User: Which sequence fits this backbone?
């Protein structure tokens, strides 16, 4: 069995300050510390090789039971991180406070325990941490029993029960929004946009749900931000960017006006900004889009946004967002520089970047190479997407990657091979329930272009293609292709014998 590299990955994930804290914590312990020897060795490794570890410590007794030593070290690091982050968030503070409450209660220090309960409850209410609030009410009821036994009847049980019912209602309300969010997020994560009438019907049903439609029925700031986020996501999946912009702006306002909740919902805030970025790009508000990219990056290291997870999201979303902005404005030279920077960052991040964002990076880099005229490099990079056998995630990217693939082969003048690729693309699209007419139009005309024998014939085909595409671009659903490839500008570049980047700028009147 291959040795586990989980310990290696955990050690490599530690920041300098986290490592320093772990070493300081270990220094307070007495006795032999074999785990520190293992820690120091693994920390210096470029890749985990257990045989090197065993060879280096072959004369040490502990190497005979290395798995248990590694497990011990793993747990010690996690314990150190728990202490290190014990004051970093409301949730972590409340966990500590609840442990203090339990200890004081078990020692029959009821008055002291009551002080901790009330202090923790104020924090839970302020941060809308309903689960902790509910648990603290349970402790209040236990303390009330102890008070009654001691002859104190100053607190009314009915008041506590009424508060408990309020918290349960808020919890139930928030949980219901979370279920709705899961449904719309599944459509977005799997397809990016609604791909057919069946999916559009699902989104319509979510939009008409009584907690989503009409008057805001959210019982908390957390639920309210989720309500408007769901509204925005429903609109975005249907490419209704006007409504999407309105709802995501409302989500942002709610979080901006409640900074404590914003700190706890860092991921939602980043994703909200990413959706606003898409709205600005679609509306050709490129200056505002640039501001959003910068705003996302400015969150790095701020309280509530300083975890590794959110740092990764800030990096991937802001860079893929900048790619999208550059491509929408025809600024492929800027994207080429960005691609070099991204490759370096991705090497350092190892396998921490999500598959979705990696797919987007590969597609965006392929589009970048196409934009600067390096079609061979565009094809080899796009093959990283096409060769992936993903069946569920972001099928929009995989589908339009196949359309993009046809255009690259046409540019490379692979006419004989293009007919085979067109058949393969048709087979792929027929297996996926999609009703975009733009895909059929592209395939139809590319097949004709591959068989055309002279410039006059080719220009006639391109002119017909331009007319049909222009008509389809009036339909917001068909305009989806612009998020993946600027087809109208490409057609114009072929007809006008101009650069693709210039054609995009001319199309956008830049």
Assistant:
């Amino acid at each position: 069995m291959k040795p586990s590299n989980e310990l290696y990955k955990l050690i490599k994930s530690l920041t300098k300050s986290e490592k320093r804290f772990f070493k300081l914590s270990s220094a307070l312990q007495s006795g032999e510390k074999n785990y520190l020897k293992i820690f120091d060795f693994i920390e210096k490794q470029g890749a985990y090789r257990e045989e090197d570890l065993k060879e280096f410590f072959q004369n040490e007794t502990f190497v005979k039971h290395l798995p248990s030593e590694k497990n011990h070290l793993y747990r010690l690091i996690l314990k150190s991180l728990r202490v290190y982050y014990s004051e970093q968030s409301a949730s972590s503070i409340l966990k500590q406070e609840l442990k203090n409450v339990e200890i004081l209660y078990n020692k029959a220090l009821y008055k002291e325990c009551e002080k901790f309960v009330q202090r923790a409850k104020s924090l839970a209410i302020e941060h809308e941490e309903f689960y902790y609030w509910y648990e603290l009410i349970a402790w209040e009821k236990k303390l009330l029993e102890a008070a009654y036994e001691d002859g104190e009847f100053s607190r009314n049980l009915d008041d506590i029960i009424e508060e408990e019912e309020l918290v349960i209602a808020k919890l139930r309300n928030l949980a219901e929004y979370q279920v709705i969010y899961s449904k719309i997020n599944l459509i977005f994560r799997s397809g990016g946009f609604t791909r057919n009438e069946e999916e559009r019907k699902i989104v319509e049903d979510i939009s008409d749900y009584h907690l989503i439609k009409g008057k805001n029925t959210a019982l908390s700031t957390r639920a309210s931000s989720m309500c408007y986020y769901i509204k925005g996501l429903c609109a975005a999946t249907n490419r209704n960017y006007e409504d999407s912009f309105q709802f995501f702006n409302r989500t942002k306002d709610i979080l901006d006006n409640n900074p404590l909740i914003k700190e706890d919902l860092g991921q939602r805030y980043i994703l909200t900004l990413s959706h606003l970025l898409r709205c600005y790009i679609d509306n050709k508000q490129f200056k505002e889009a640039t501001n959003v990219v910068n705003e996302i990056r400015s969150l790095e290291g701020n309280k509530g946004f300083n975890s590794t997870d959110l740092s990764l999201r800030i990096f991937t979303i802001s860079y893929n967002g900048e790619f999208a902005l550059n491509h929408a404005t025809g600024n492929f030279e800027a994207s080429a520089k960005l691609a070099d920077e991204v490759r370096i960052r991705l090497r350092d991040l190892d396998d921490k970047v999500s598959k979705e964002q990696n797919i987007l990076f590969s597609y965006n880099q392929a589009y970048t190479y196409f934009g600067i005229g390096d079609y061979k490099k565009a094809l080899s990079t796009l093959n990283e997407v096409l060769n992936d056998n993903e069946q569920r995630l972001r099928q929009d990217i995989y589908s339009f990657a196949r359309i993009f693939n046809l255009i690259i082969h046409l540019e490379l003048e692979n006419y004989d091979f293009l007919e085979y690729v067109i058949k393969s693309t048709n087979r792929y699209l027929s297996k996926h329930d999609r009703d975009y007419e733009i895909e059929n139009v592209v395939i139809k005309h590319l097949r004709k272009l591959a068989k055309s024998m002279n410039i006059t014939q080719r220009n006639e085909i391109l002119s017909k293609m331009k007319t049909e595409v222009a008509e389809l671009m009036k339909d917001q659903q068909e305009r989806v292709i612009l998020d993946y490839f600027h087809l109208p500008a490409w057609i114009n570049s072929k007809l006008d014998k101009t650069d693709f980047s210039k054609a995009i700028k001319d199309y956008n009147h830049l």
Q: What stands out?
A: Residues 157-191 form the longest helix (35 residues). The chain has 25 helices and no strands. Residues 2 and 387 are 27 Å apart (CA to CA). The two ends are 59 Å apart (CA to CA).
